[in-house]
Structures are given as structure tokens and as C-alpha cells.
Design brief:
The complex is a heterotetramer of chains A (about 325), B (about 300), C (about 500) and D (about 325). In chain A, a hairpin with a 2-residue loop joins strand 2 and strand 3 (about 160-165). With about 325 residues, chain A is mainly alpha-helical. Chain A has 15 helices and four strands. With about 300 residues, chain B is an alpha/beta fold. Helices cover about 40% and strands about 20% of the residues of chain B. Chain D has helices at about 15-20, 25-45, 50-60, 60-75, 85-100, 105-130, 135-150, 160-170, 180-195, 200-210, 210-215, 220-245, 255-265, 280-300, 305-330, and strands at about 155-160, 170-175, 175, 250. Chain D is mostly helical and about 325 residues long. The two termini of chain D are about 20 Å apart. Chain D has 15 helices and four strands. Chain D has a two-stranded antiparallel sheet with strand order 1-4. Classes of the chains: A mainly alpha (about 325), B alpha/beta (about 300), C alpha/beta (about 500), D mainly alpha (about 325). Chains in contact: A-B, A-C, A-D, B-D, C-D. The interface of B and D includes residues 36, 53 and 69 of B. The structure holds adenosine-5'-triphosphate (ATP) (2 copies) and magnesium ion (MG) (2 copies). One magnesium ion binds near residues 49, 50, 92 and 172 of chain C.
Amino acid sequence: MSRLLKHREVFLFLAILLVLVLVTARFPRFAQPGNLLTIFNDTSILMMLALGQMAVILTRSIDLSMAANLALTGMIVAMTNAAFPGVPVPLLMAMCVVVGAGLGAFNGVLVWKLNIPPIVVTLGTLTIYRGLVFVISGGAWVNAAQMSPDFINLQRAVFLGLPLLSWFAIVTALLFWVVMTRTPLGRSLYAIGVNPTASVYTGINVGRTKFYAFVISGAVAGLCGYLWISRYVIASVEVAGGYELTIIAACVIGGVSIAGGIGSVAGVLLGAIFLGVINNALPVINISPFWQMAISGTAILLAVVLNARGERRQGRVILKKAEAV
Amino acid sequence: QTRIALVVKSLGNGFFDAANKGAQEAAAELGDVEVIYTGPTAATAEAQIEVINSLIAQQVDAIAISANDPDALVPALQKAMERGIKVISWDSGVAPEGRQLHLNPSETALIGETIIKLAADYLPDGGDVAILSASSTATNQNAWIEAAKAVLPEKFPNINLVSVVYGDDDSVKSTDEAKGLIASYPDLKAIIAPTTVGVVAAAQVVTDQNLIGKINVTGLALPSEFKQFIDNGASQAVALWNPIDLGYAAVMLANDLVKGGEAKPGAVLSMGRMGELTLDDTNSGAMAAPFTFDKSNIEEFSKIY
Amino acid sequence: MKPKTMTDPILTLSGISKSFPGVRALHDVSLELYAGEVTALIGENGAGKSTLVKTLTGIYQPDAGEIRVGGQRVTLPTAHSASALGITAIHQETVLFDEMTVAENIYLGHAPRGRFGLIDWRTMRAEAQETLDSMAAGIDAGIKLRELGIAKKHLVAVARALSIDAQVVIMDEPTAALSQKEIEDLYVLIELLKQDGKAILFISHKFDEIYRIADRFTVFRDGEQVGKGFIRDTSQGQIVQMMVGRAVDQIFPERTAVIGQTVLEAKGLSHPTEFEDISFFVREGEILGFYGLVGAGRSEVMQAVFGLTRTSAGTLSLDGAAIAPRSPADAVDAGIVYVPEERGKQGVITGEPIFKNVSLPSLGKTSKSGFLRMAEEFALARTYTERLDLRASSLSQNVSTLSGGNQQKVVIAKWLATLPKVIILDEPTKGIDIGSKAAVHGFMAELVAQGLSVIMVSSELPEVLGMSDRIVVMREGRVIDTLDNKGLKPETLVRLAAGIAEEQAA
Amino acid sequence: MTDTSLHRSLPNRLDNPLKSAVLSWESLLVVVVVAIFILNSFASPYFLNAWSLSDLTFNFTEKALIALAMALLIIAGEIDLSVAAIIALASTMMGLALQYGADTPTLVAVGVGIGILCGAFNGFLVTGLKLPSIVVTIGTMSLFRGIAFIILGDQSFKGYPATFSWFGQGYVWWVISFELVLFLVCALIYWVLLHRTNFGRRIFAIGNNDVAAKFSGVRVDRIKFILFCLTGLMSGIAAVLLTARLGSTRPSIAEGFELEAITMVVLGGVSILGGAGSILGVVLAALIVGLVTFGLGLLNVPGIVMTIFTGTLLIVVIALPILFRMWRQRA
Ligand SMILES: Nc1ncnc2c1ncn2[C@@H]1O[C@H](COP(=O)(O)OP(=O)(O)OP(=O)(O)O)[C@@H](O)[C@H]1O
Ligand SMILES: Nc1ncnc2c1ncn2[C@@H]1O[C@H](COP(=O)(O)OP(=O)(O)OP(=O)(O)O)[C@@H](O)[C@H]1O
Ligand SMILES: [Mg+2]
Ligand SMILES: [Mg+2]
């Protein structure tokens, strides 16, 4: 048991259960399967984005431009849909992935070829991408009436009892799990974070691998651009404004180390769900919405403290080793 | 050449784009007036102040503003007035010391009553209703909600207002809040959203959760953005004034002041084709009554604004 | 020794040059490596040895020259292309992944693949275990690398080299951090590699081991190749002559210091996990040696004295007055300074110039009411770097561009400038060439002659025996004995440090 | 070839200081400032006007004040994303104090004091609990502003006394505003602090290698803690100015300031990885951001489009020297 508890995923899972139990005690309807599935569905986009962000953070980088990328790709796809309602939605989604990956690749190239620190690059592109949303749309919103029914309803279609949106998240998570644990690319992402110098010596092209990480986060952001727009049926400049920090918060709560090299798919999913549960629970148990921000801030701080406790090295314990001999 | 700046809460909002149409119409009618349509992208007071500062530097003749914050803009607008610029607020007002007059789209009390009535009309037996507002700092929304609360006890005794929540004119936040309302109040019969962003978000949630027919969404909405929810039954009816007229009137009033008109309690100023505005003792006046859209007329108006 | 076979070399370098801004690290050097032979690469600090290694493994690109593998001319644009050609290296710094398993450390970059080209963890683990077992490493391939000691990590690096199936194995000072026992194990391994027909390039500052395992040698001086030949045809003196361009006597300096009052005294220092009941004292003008096997906890004790780690029990006194440094700053104020073991990480601030490194702890003295006075800083830096014969182009040269030995001199200069009472030197000559080593030793003698107290932590027997007045032997976090260095036999120290009973050692 | 002959006196430096000054980052920024200034005067007839130029300064002084302290923090290898939230909390507390009848000096003390407290809280979490500052301040950013929301909800505080408003709206002489004067004075203080004192030298050492700095007897944690407090202090001062300028407090005040302040710092040539940077660069960068936004504002370019310019400027200004170096190496 104590061994299990060492895994922060287990700890996080218990924390989420605790919140569920507490809320349910006051409000039984909250824990109904239907509501839980709704929370999962509501959190799907955050989960996907956080997974993309994890790929970047693992390499000791950070992508502050994900939300802006999402907004830009979302605006592009919404305008395309408004202008050419006949284009099939799967094609539009493919377009989102490509556009998003392209925007991510731009970050990646600057990081790779020019060696500019990622936080600077994405701080710059964060404003550029969001500005471009305004430029291409002229500031006008694309609203529900302009979108085709297919465009809006695809993610709402139910398959095996779950909306497609949830399935997108599930498939993305599986894909990430395979890539992270079973492919050279995934392992390289970890390796770079653990020890960049050693990675060079091992023959990993650090710059190019970081580039791939940004392409991954960009592609995810692009796909989420479509999902976000069709979910909230409005495309505007302000879409997902400030969401970049929520994405990072989900990663942090999920145990991704900002110093790179540490993090798991399961942890990130739980981190996102934790935020989702908190956000859903507060209005339900009638806590003033004005408390929401302070509570999630506290949650982030607690998560960091707990994670740091877990990560802290226990020294070399010379005496203990001596006794054991 | 008279230059009048039409400053809005945020660019890209369909409502304000429509207002700009009316403003340009007024400029064309007046001939010697140029309208500068501007505003921040995010609906914050600080961003609006930067816009005001640059307008002061450009020495425009008048500023007509729909404010993100009634108080925070006062110092900046006072500075504008000191430099000889005429300042009026419209739609969402500024505290009296920060402007020369305020143009309400409609009587506050009337709007407050209308939004409740829109819900009550379809609830013959009464029931629970909740309000999903814009940001908690929005002047106009807050005033309407106060007015609505005031008329409830006598005119609509069987309507029970259970909660007021704020979606900050942000579609995600509005969506979350609407969901929260539905989850917390199982007997909820109507959601009233006196804001164009919130009302769309709420209607989408009701559509998504298959609650059409159980929960009626109503409030203030742009016909073009809201048409589909009248069509699919998520909403029976919504109301709004004509933003084109509002923009038109704002420019006309600003022009009046520039050309020598004086804003003081009791004064009567011309709004061109919209008639005349009579100022009350806080130097504000109302344009017209809100207009209701339902299945019968939404098609027609959705093509206009 | 096997007979000399004049086969063609596996790897040939010719005319290789490499410059860094302001530094010519390699100039027109050549090198041949032969199958089944160990070639020792010898040179002072900064001679360009590690630079050559990095050029050979695709980490640096040479400015000129050519590399031939098996007669074929090749380029090595990345580390990957080098290992694809069968060139692998155990670098001077351990370059492995703490957070990953041993198996993955061995196979990262060339992991066995299963279905759909996905990494096959099970096979990887099994093969890694096999390699480790063949080396008799006694390491479980499934645990995280973090759990291993520094010596075992080196073994993992060797296993990695083996797993690549290299023709050329390069070892850049592999024994610097190893204990005697582990060094012996390494020799066995190298012998195995030789029998396998691999060409080995071995870099070391220790002549005993060069003479023990190398067949050939190549000497570098200031980035140029100044000599090569067969080890058994050349004397140590001749090689040293080539290295430094002059004769160096390896005799430890005569010391004339008069030993005075007790300066620093520790009584019963304990730490919850690292050490227990440590007592020692050091007197004016005395060098106190701390001997033990690597990992005995000597550094931990010194860092506690320096205020870096908290002790759970025990007292410290300086000149008879109790002190309790809670931070290095406190210790420095009291007059205790510490030259750390990990120069690059703890010793120098690599991004800054020499003079800023030297003045950092003395800013209080060079400044005037908190405001900097650069002229004073330069004067201070010049005084002490000159006394240590620091080799650099200017005092504003970035420390990162200095070689290891010269970086060490910067650290020592920094502390001398604070005019300390007690100076603790942790492995002061680790990875330092023979010329600089003598300089450091000479300087220690000078320090005690001036009345300072020196504590020297060292794992090198000759150094401990040659320099110390008294020797504290530590093992597994405890003081085993404190001995007067008069007629001490090396075996006694080794026995105490390793915990071997007297009869067995005999 | 490096001369390594024995017993030779080492020169202080080899390079020509004048040459390196001309090729420095700051001179690049000066060129950019002048270029934008000239462009602005051509683009708008209203630009070259004392009052316009004075109004211009209000667009950046508050953020630039924070950027000064943030520069030190980033040079030391840490970061504070919570500065805007500190403004919100400090402003809210001032409003609360006002409700209890506080006079102007008390209000200022409350604002500045809360700033320092918040900074100290960040500093404690980072240095005391050894947590990474970027995550800590993402957390406190929500926490501080969250507390402001809890206190204020949908309300606002207003009715600040006129003497208080002077801090944000007053002029010291003619068109020279109090905010501008305060910024210039603070810039001078920070310049001296960073470039001319032991404290500043230690900040650089910490940013380059905090372990080695600690081993060199630098009290790393204490200095980092002080830097967080300084950043809090400057946020508190910015809160006073902004509140006085707006004449009211809402919990949503100063949203997005943190990224703008960091942009100024980075544009000013401070290495985000720590260990390098200058105050002059930060001041110039603040000026650039102010000039660009005001200039585009005069042309009624929407704010969001301006951000494209600042974002591009940030990347281009940082990429240019790198590209130049790569080009020269190839040649
Ligand atoms: N990345 C670099 N940038 C600038 N100069 C460098 C760099 N790497 C090495 N040098 C310089 O090149 C020269 C050779 O260094 P190298 O590390 O190869 O020496 P070494 O022979 O391995 O010394 P040691 O025995 O101390 O390890 C030194 O003067 C060093 O300062
Ligand atoms: N498992 C390990 N992981 C990482 N670094 C280690 C490990 N073991 C030792 N080191 C590093 O290698 C160096 C040598 O450590 P060592 O094992 O000698 O311990 P120590 O406490 O310094 O003992 P002593 O000084 O008696 O040799 C130290 O600087 C230490 O930081
Ligand atoms: Mg070397
Ligand atoms: Mg040691």
C-alpha cells in the first residue's frame, strides 16, 4: 500500500475521489454516472491539450502558445465551414491538425534552429497567433447560425454511450501512451528532459526532438481548435483566452515536472480531471463562483508541494547502506 | 470635419458591429462627420483607457463610449473633457462625472421587466428561473437585474428567481455556469440571459442536454446569432433593441454636443430619425422600448442584425 | 603481453584541428588506434584530450583534418553516426539518465523493437541483464540508474559501449571516481575487450595505470601531438618530459611548517543518514588527510563543517570558541573554506569571467559600502591567480573556456583571497595533470607554512601519505581511526578503509 | 593562439570595451527606439506633441516598474507570474482600507505592504520549500486574484481621495507626470543596484550557477527571497499607481500585466535562463513597447493587432543577432 501511495497518480486519484465523496455527501445527484460522464466529457479538451503540453514540458520546454494556436486554428476552421458548408467535417478536422501542427512547427523551428528559449518563442507567438485571429476574421465572430449542423453536432454524436468528444480524448490518450512508452521519439522526449547533455552524447538530436514536441503540441492544439469551436459554437478572438496557464496547471497537478523528464499520461489525465471536478463541483454545492479561482490556485500549490515531496531525493544514506551490509 | 470616436466594450461583438453600421449611417447623413470605430479586444477597463488616451492624443471632437467599467474610466474621460473633447456614454454607462450624457438603449425598468416577462409568458403556472449575466461589473446588466428583482414580487408573484450567476461574456464560463445552474436546480424552468454571449451559451447547453421543452432560454439576443435556437425550440422568444439605431443615435447626440448643444437635466436633444432624447436629472435618457423576437419574425430580423 | 602485430589501424586521424573562440584546442593532430590494443592518450589539463574524444564521437565537428575508419574516409556529423560506425565512448563526465532504468540507459537510441516497430521492453531488459552479467557487474537492469553509486554508473556506461558492438572504445579518465577494487574490475574488463579485438583509447593522468594496461601512447601538449610510441619502450620520465616540455620531479614538497595550537575541532558530528559520531581536530600549520574509499562519506562531513548540511548532533569549535555555521556564508565569515569535489557544478561559475569568480566571496573586501570597485577586484584576482600560475589569456576570460586543472586553480584562488584559517580541499587533484598537481601540492605546503590549517580529502594513497601530517580514515560514514603519518604503510590505510581484517590483508 | 607562457601577468581584458559597447544589445535597442520614434512622427501628425508624449508614458510605466524588479528576478534564474494578481489583491486591500476610512498615506502603505507580503509568500514557497518558481507563481496567481474576487465579488471600491489620485494622474511639472518621474528614479536605483553593487554581482552569480554561488558563500536563498519581495514591492507600487489612475478597484484589474512585463524584460536582453541582462536594456524595451502601442493607437490600430507587432518584435529582435552570428560563421 505504501508503495502504491508513492505513485502520485494513485494519490491524485484518491484526492479526486475525496472531492467526489465530499460533494456527493452534500449533493447526492453529483456522483450519478451520468454526471460523472458529463464531467469527463467537459474535461476532454483540457485532457488533450494537457497531453500535448506534457510532450513539450518533458523536454524542459514550455508551450505558452497552445491556447492562441487553438483560437487561430479554430477561427480558420470556423470561417472555412461558414464559407464552404459542403466541406466534410473529417476533412476540416484533418485541416485543423495540419494547421495546428504547422503553427507548432513554427515554434519548433525557432527553438531548434535559432536556439531561442521556448518560453520566449511561445510568449511571442502567443500574441502573434492571437493577433492573427483578429486579422483574418476582421474581429467578427463566427456564430452558431453560420456553422453547418454537421460541424456542430459531430462531437455530440453518441457512440457506446459516450459522446464522440470523449472518444477523441480516449483515443488521444491511448496514442500518447503508446508513443511515450514504446517509441524512440517518446523515450527521447524523456531523455532530453532527464539529461540534455547525455542525450547529445547518446546520439539524440535534441533540437529536432524538441521540434517534434512542438509539432505534437501544435497538432493537438489544432484539433482542439475544432473541438472547442464546435463545442461552444462561437469563434472569436477571445476563445480560450488565458487558457494556456490552465493547461500547464493540469500538467503540474498531474505530476509533470516543470524541470523536464518526469510525467505520465495517466497523471496528466487525472490532473485535468481534478480541475474539471473542482470546476464542476463548486457551482453544484453552491459555493460562490468567486471562490473558484482561489480554490484552484490552492489546489495547484498543494499539488506542487506534494509532488516536490515525492521527487525529493533521499540522499545517499551511507549509514543505512552500511547497516544493510 | 468633425471626428467622433465610437468606443465599444470589445471589438468583434456582433452587437457592436451592428451599432457601427448605424454610426456610419449617421455620419453619411450628417456629411461632415467622420466616425472612428474602435475599442479593445478584451473587455477590460485598462484596455479601454489606452484607447481613450490615444483618442485624446488624436484630438478627436467627441467620444461616444460603451463602458466596461463605470468608474475606472472616469479619470481618463475627465481628462478628455478637460482637453475639450465631448464625452457621451451609450449602452453601458459611465458614472455621471465621467461623461456629459448617457444614452440608455431603453428604460432600465422596462428592460428589467421585459426579461422577466419573456420568461413568465411561457410559464403560466410559474416556477424557478435563474439569471445568467455578463461580467459582474457590467453596469447595464446589473441595473436591469436590479429592476427585474424589483418588479418580481408584485407583477410576477409565482416566478421564483433562484440564482444570479456571471458568465463574464465568455462562452466557456457562460457554458459552465449554465450547466451549474441546471445541475443545481432540478426544477429550473427558464434561464434568463440579458447578454448576447450568455444567451447563446445557455441555449446551446439546453440543446446539448436535450432539455428543449423543459427549460426555456430567454433574454437579450441578436436575432442573427440566435435564430437557430428559436427555430429548434430551445427558446420561445428573446428581446433586444436595435443596435443599429443605438449606434446611429449615439453619433447624432455626440454631434449635437460638438455643434454646441448643451447637456443638462431637462434638455432635449435631437437623435435624427430616432426622434428626440430628453435628459433626466442624471443627464441620461432612453432611446426606445425593447423589441421582442419570436418564431414569427426572427427570420426577417436575422438578416438585418 | 601479446606480440606486436603491425596490422593496419582500425581508426586513423590525421591533421585534425579544432578551435573555440580564443582557444586553439587541437592543432594538426593525428592518432592511430589498433585492434586489440590499448592506446593511452596523455597530456596536461587542457591539452585537448577530451576535445579529441568529442570530435571522434560526433559531438564536435573538426575545423580541418580527416577521420578514417577501416581505411574508409568518414564524417561524423552526429553522435549517432559515430556509434553507427562502431565508435563509442565513456566520457569524462558521466552522461547517463538518472530517472531511467539501467536497461534503458544501455539501450537508449538502439532499443530492440517488436511488433509495429514499438520498443520491446522485455527483450531490452533481458539483453541488458545479460550484458551486465557478462561483466559480473552485479547490477539489476530493472532499477533506476539513480539508485546506483558513481562506480556502478561507470559500469553501466561500459555496458552501453559493449551493447553497441563497437570496434573502438574510448575511455576518458574512467578511473577518476573509482575505488581501487573497482579499478581492478575495470582492468579485467579492458582485458576482455582487447581479447575481443576492440581498439581502445584510454585517457588518464595516472601513470601507474597507464603502465599497467596500455600498449601504446600518444602525448598531446597545448593541442598538438608531441610524441607517440610503445609504452614498454618509454620511461615515465620521458613521457612527462614530452607532456610538459620539461622535467617534473614527482616528489612531494618538503614541509617546514611548525605545528601549533588546535584551530578547528569537531566532536561527535552526526547526521541522520550519512555519518555518525565524527570527531577530529586540525592544528595550525597542519595538513590533516581524510582517507577512505570513494563513498565513505568524507565529502558529506566536510560539507557539514562548511554549513551546507545540517548535523543532528555534535559540536564544532574554532580557536576554542564554539561555532555553528548554518550556511557556507557563515563558515566563510568564520574562516573555513571548502574547495568542492565537483568543480564544474559546485566550484566555478562557468558563465562568468575569472576575476568575478575570484572576487565573489571577497566582495565585502573589494567593495566600498556595498558598491563595487572593479580595479580592486582585478588586483585581487591577479594576485592570487598569478601565485597559482593560472594559464589564461586574460582575467576577463570566461571560466567555462578553461581546462579542468585551470578551473581548479580559479576555485583555490577564490578561497585564498578570503584569507581563511582553515581550508578544506576535497579531492584537490582529481583529474588534474601531473604538472598542476605538483603546483597544488606545493601550494598546500606554502599554505601551512603561513600558518593555515589544511584538511585534504583524497582517495589517492600516494597523495595522502605524501602530504598529510595525520590521517583520518573513514569507512561507511564513521571514523575508523586517526593515525600519525610516521612510517605508515600504505597497506595499513587500505586495510582500515576497506574494513579488511589484518590476517586477510597479510 | 592563447599565450600560456609561464609567469606572465594576465591582462584585465583582451577585447576593446568601446567596440563591444557599440555591438551590444542596448545599442541595437537604441536604434530600434529611434527608428520607431521617427516612424511614429511620420505616421501620425498628433505624435510630436508634448501632451501626446506625456500620455504615452502612462501606457507603460506601471508595467515597466514591475519589469525592473522582474529583470533582477529573472537574472537570478527565477520568475514571478503572479505580479498582476498581486496588483489586484493590493488594490482590493486598499479599497478595503478605504472603507474603514484610511487616509492617503495609509492607503499607500497598505498597497505597498500587501505587495511585499505577497512577494514574501512567493519567496517563501520558492526558497523555503524549494519549489520551482514558475509553478508556484502560476498557483499564487490564481490564489491572490482569487482572494480579491472573494472579497469584492461583483462589487467595486471607489471614491479614493483626490490626494491619492494624484499618484496616478498628477503631474510634477508641466507634462512630466508623477508616474514617469517615479519610474525614472526607480530605474536609476535598480541600475545602481544591479550593476554597481555587491548585491547585483551576486544576483548574476546566482543566475549563472546557484549551486556554485552557494558554495562560494553567497546567501542564495536570502537573495532570492529579497528579490521576490522586491518584485512584490514593485507590484504594490504599481497597484497604487494603477488604482489611483483608475480611481476604482475591481478584482479583474491589471489582467495580463505579467506577460507584458516579462516581454519587456526579455526584449530588454535579459536572458530568460538567468545570469545575463541589464537595466538599461529593460528601460529601452519598455520605451519600445510604449512607443509601438501608442503609435499604433494613434492610427487606431486595434490593441490585438499591436500585440502582433510586439510579439514579432520580441522574436525578431532576439533572432536577429543569432541569425547574424550564424551568417558570419558561415562566411
Ligand atoms: N566548449 C568549449 N569552448 C571553448 N573552449 C573549450 C571548449 N571545450 C574545451 N575548450 C578548451 O579547449 C582546450 C582543451 O580542452 P580539453 O577539455 O580537451 O582538455 P583535456 O585535455 O581534456 O583536459 P583535462 O585533462 O583537464 O580534462 C582547453 O583550453 C579548453 O579550455
Ligand atoms: N549515486 C550517486 N549519484 C550521483 N552522484 C553520486 C552518487 N554517488 C556519489 N556521487 C557523487 O560522486 C562524488 C563522489 O561521491 P562519493 O561516493 O565519494 O561520496 P562522498 O560522500 O563524497 O564520499 P567520499 O568523499 O568519502 O568519497 C560526490 O560528489 C557525489 O556527489
Ligand atoms: Mg578532459
Ligand atoms: Mg567525496
